[in-house]
Amino acid sequence: MSSYELSQGTVNNIQLFLKGLILILIAGAAISSRLFSVIRFESIIHEFDPWFNFRATKYLVSHSYYEFLNWFDDRTWYPLGRVTGGTLYPGLMVTSGTIWHALRKIGLPIDIRNVSVLLAPAFSGVTAYFTYLFTKEIKDSSAGLLAAAFMGIAPGYISRSVAGSYDNEAIAITLLMAAFYFWIKASKEGSVFWASWAAVFYFYMVSAWGGYVFITNLIPLHVFVLILMGRYNKKLYAAYSTWYAIGTLASMQIPFVGFLPIRSNDHMAALGVFGLIQIVAFGDYIRSQVPTNKFKSVLAVSVVLIIALGILGLVGLTYAGLIAPWTGRFYSLWDTNYAKIHIPIIASVSEHQPTAWPAFFFDTQFLIWLFPAGVYLLFQDLSNEGVFVIVYSVLCSYFAGVMVRLMLTLTPIICASAAIAISKLFDVYLDFSEYLQSKVVVQETSSEKAKEEISVTTKSKNHTVFGLISKLTVISTFAFYLYLFVYHCTWVTSIAYSSPSVVLSSRLPDGSQNIIDDYREAYYWLRMNTPEDAKILSWWDYGYQIGGMADRTTLVDNNTWNNTHIATVGKALSSSEEVSYEILKEHDVDYILIIFGGVLGFSGDDLNKYLWMIRIAEGIWPEEVKEKDFFTANGEYRVDDQATDVMKNSLLYKLSYHRFVDLFGGKQATDRVRNQKITKEPDLNIVEEAYTTENWLVRIYKVKDLDNAGRDLIQSSKFEKESIAGVKRRVQKRPELDLRE
Amino acid sequence: MLLNQLSSLFVFLLVTLSTALKSIVPPKTALIYDSKITNIEEYTKLLTYLKDELNLKLSTYEYNSEDLSIFKNGELNYQNLIIFPTKARNLGAKGSIKGLDLVEFFNKGGDVFAITSPQGVSESVRNFYNQLGIYPSPKNHELVDHFNGLEETDKLIKLSAENNLVLQNNIIESVEGIEFQGSSSLISNNPQIFPIVQASTTSYTKNSQGDDDSRPWTVGKEGYLTVGFQGLNNARSLWLGDISQLNDSKLGSFGENLLKWTFQFKNILKSIDVSHNHISGESYEDRQYKVKDEIEYKITLQEYDGQVWKPTSIDDLQFEIKLIDPYYRLNLSEISSSAFSTTYGVKFAIPDRHGVYTLQTIYKRPGYSFIEEAEVLSIRHLANDEYPRSWEITNSWVYLTSSIVVFTAWFAFVIIFIYIKDDKSNAKKNK
């Protein structure tokens, strides 16, 4: 008997060991599945925003933190410049800077690029661990382990955290889960210690990502719902007051956030709930002092009064301009058409578009239908922590439906809820202890007690033949689902989320992979062939990449803080040459960089983004740039010979199709993106072609100097062309000249 | 101080050296003429003047000479061109020098002095001037003035200062005694054109070949007889409507001044030094400028009078600090002057707006070389520790006091609360 029995301590140790092992394996799986991009392509920073983060990180490690904090960047937003140190979330850069310094201290001098590339995968392992802790607080450790495993490989999270995706979200999701874990812990135990930890991670989150506002609103909402449910207690009071006081004061230390926590509407909920909980605490104290029936009427009146006063005060202060109204991004969360009408620049960003429904399945697979089940199960016993998960899931489901990028914040809660559902299921169906127990009992039949037991167990055994089968069926079904999930996740990660988008890849007819590296080719050309202080004009999408890869000054970039400046660039690209040239000269532009996909069939090129440029420019100069002028009489967007004159005379059109007809050497020239035939070479005067990449994806033009003889460039290049062609005018005509001033 | 003197001495030496070098290696000059119209023998005074007075290395060519090529390996073969009227359509061997080539010559920094006459207006020269905005009257069009005419035909016209000299031109002083016979031209509004001699009100151009009812090329004051032009690169060009002003009988101060101006012996300005620094003397490199910093901007100019560089006497020099549009446009005043240059400067506070500014001085006056000096500088914002501390602002004392009072009151309250509570419970126990 004693040989079979294990002491409780041993069991615990084995459990601990297994848990540790499982978590390490989960972290391993999470990290390794994010390395597809490095294996497929190379260790390179992806996309757009990460290039800025990378550039800022390089600045941080080559300068002091003081210099970084007060960094005035004169290489972007020429000639305005950007107070970069005060307008970024430094968490990400400081994290990788710290790692870089720490590794150097222990004798591992690693290139900062590799630290940056591998930061997101490394943090995904930590995220899995915090998801485990979070779900463990909600249910138990087996649900926690499942949640951690889901979180590790869910494509919804992988999409923003593959190697090279060096974005704020890479660490922010980790911090989000950590802050929520400590919050749950604090509200459960009423511990100032855990609440302080929640505040510390909240601060870290504020320093890392603008999405911290989500925590700022979710935790107060949790508290508010609990108060409404009549679940106020002193633990909640201690936890919330501590978190709010420390967290808010700490968050105000980030220069970019500054006084927002007391001035912006986004943060008012937290402040309001902080006030409310003081009043509720006071009310609670009163209740303990006065009889119940009197208290109820006092309570009802005061609650109505307070809420009315609060809302009036908020409206009044907002109206008086003391509190900043909600931002455009916030409005577009409620009205999906808001941005399209009022702020084209927000609508023009693809990740601000509403989510397509298949995306939910694509990003979370079978978790998406387990998610409501998990929420339902939490409703059943409705613990305080459960309420948090419910509030989180309701709020986030809505947001994820409105904006693609918010899928990211929904993923953790999907994983946790689904894990709770599955773990509940497994609790029942994976429990074979009675069968094991009966065998143990059968082996030793001596005492009468045992005999009785036999009769009981045989009964239950007879009872559970079908039970066993059903258990096995359910288990195997879910094992299959889990297998499918892992398979799906791996497939999605490798197929959809591992492309750096700086390097494109296509399949050749023979099936081999063809790497299209035009972006880097162009940026490298700029780096090597243009003066160091050259100013490059491009649409804002490419600003960060030009800054990061070509190291040249740009006019606008992905930071999009100044709509007018972006509109100026839009106007320069959408106006006629004469108008554009003035703008170009005013801003000292030396080169223009455009993306043209007509040869390759790359649909994300500038001509397809053209309408956004026109709309943004029209927002500032409605008299000069008009969207409808770019559409034909039938309302079509055409670039062929039926295109409108305004379209044909616009700078971007000319830049795109310059020499395009020649490329086809007499054959019909067809734009492969828009499937339209180009017949005429546009007349381009104010710039000259400087460089065009292998697949014509990136085209760089040099802006001509002012004419030495004071002519306009259209006249001078006309003269040049005619002289070379040998056009002669025998009869000299008297010129029509303006009166001399 | 000593260092300053030494350095100015050094600069002076350099300037003398460069002047000396200029006379050692004289600029190459080509004179192109057409023997069908012009007898080069009649221009010996001009040739001597160019060679001996102006120290040019002169070569003369028939318009279609095989040896004549204005470019060599893509670079200018001559610094200066003098083009006499030609009957031919294009210049150069087999008409190789076209209008476009002259424009290129000019854009690369070459100076062009061209004369057209009713006998000969080559297409090259005409196209070249048309591009600059000067439209010389075509072949056979001749200026006539029946009021100021000196001969029967009224084609030889007496010029007068009040009628013909363009005021404020600083290229020639007088047209008294000049008898003009030749072409007139129309000019556009191009600001780089400097008209020098204008046709008189009573003059017009007459086409000797065409029918009389056609519109004359110029009528009255819309015609110009001598026009200067300066490119943005400070290359100069001059169009003259009368070839006889250069021949042995007429060449005088009028023609000489025109030649001196065109070939850069007159009205030459240049900036030799631009500097700026903190008022304290620290440079931008030592301590980057930030908003509201007091700085000093200086520019040193000099003028060439044909022999030496000397100080300038300008009183309308302006400086701009701009960020797309100028924030300030300030007058520069003379702060010091040496034997060969003048320094202008201004002290000002940088605007309260961070950004990438251009500090520029643009000086463009008719007849003088253009001065354009621009430097792009980034002006940073205040760093986090450069704002005044809260207690330095008197307004904040109210808030500081109230918060300190609250802190102390709270602390006192807690102490008292605990103390009283203990007292009560003790009292209860005692009961």
UniProtKB/TrEMBL annotation, chain A:
User: In which compartments does the protein localize?
Assistant: Endoplasmic reticulum membrane
Reactions listed under catalytic activity: a di-trans,poly-cis-dolichyl diphosphooligosaccharide + L-asparaginyl-[protein] = N(4)-(oligosaccharide-(1->4)-N-acetyl-beta-D-glucosaminyl-(1->4)-N-acetyl-beta-D-glucosaminyl)-L-asparaginyl-[protein] + a di-trans,poly-cis-dolichyl diphosphate + H(+)
Keywords from the named record: Endoplasmic reticulum, Glycoprotein, Glycosyltransferase, Magnesium, Manganese, Membrane, Metal-binding, Transferase, Transmembrane, Transmembrane helix
Where does the STT3/PglB/AglB core domain lie? 536-584
**Which pathway is recorded for this entry?**
Protein modification; protein glycosylation
Tell me the membrane topology, using the record's own terms.
Multi-pass membrane protein
Q: What is its main location?
A: endoplasmic reticulum
* Biological process per Gene Ontology, one example term: protein N-linked glycosylation via asparagine
Q: Which Gene3D superfamilies match?
A: 3.40.50.12610
Please list the cofactors this protein needs. Mn(2+); Mg(2+)
| InterPro entries the record matches | Oligo_trans_STT3, STT3-PglB_core, STT3_N
The enzyme's first-digit EC class, named in words, is transferase
Q: What EC number(s) has UniProt assigned to this enzyme?
A: 2.4.99.18
One GO MF annotation is: metal ion binding
Gene Ontology CC annotation, any one? oligosaccharyltransferase complex
Transmembrane stretches in the record are 16-36, 115-135, 141-158, 170-186, 206-229, 241-262, 268-286, 298-324, 359-379, 386-404, 465-486
For the Oligosaccharyl transferase STT3 N-terminal domain, which residue ranges apply?
17-417
Q: Which residues form the signal peptide?
A: none
The similarity comment for this entry is:
Belongs to the STT3 family.
Question: What does this protein do, in the record's words?
Answer: Catalytic subunit of the oligosaccharyl transferase (OST) complex that catalyzes the initial transfer of a defined glycan (Glc(3)Man(9)GlcNAc(2) in eukaryotes) from the lipid carrier dolichol-pyrophosphate to an asparagine residue within an Asn-X-Ser/Thr consensus motif in nascent polypeptide chains, the first step in protein N-glycosylation. N-glycosylation occurs cotranslationally and the complex associates with the Sec61 complex at the channel-forming translocon complex that mediates protein translocation across the endoplasmic reticulum (ER).
Q: Under which name does UniProt file this protein? A: Dolichyl-diphosphooligosaccharide--protein glycosyltransferase subunit STT3
Record the organism: Wickerhamomyces mucosus
Automatic annotation (TrEMBL), chain B:
Question: GO biological process: what's one of them?
Answer: protein N-linked glycosylation via asparagine
The metabolic or biological pathway listed in the UniProt record of this protein is:
Protein modification; protein glycosylation
Q: Which residues form the OST48 N-terminal domain?
A: 29-251
Q: Which residues cross the membrane?
A: 397-420
Write out the annotated subcellular location.
Endoplasmic reticulum membrane; Membrane
Does the record's keyword annotation contain Isomerase? no
Q: Name one GO cellular component term.
A: oligosaccharyltransferase complex
Query: Topology with regard to the membrane?
Result: Single-pass type I membrane protein
Pfam families on file: OST48_MD, OST48_N
The OST48 middle domain extends over 280-420
Family from the record: Belongs to the DDOST 48 kDa subunit family.
Q: What is this protein called?
A: Dolichyl-diphosphooligosaccharide--protein glycosyltransferase subunit WBP1
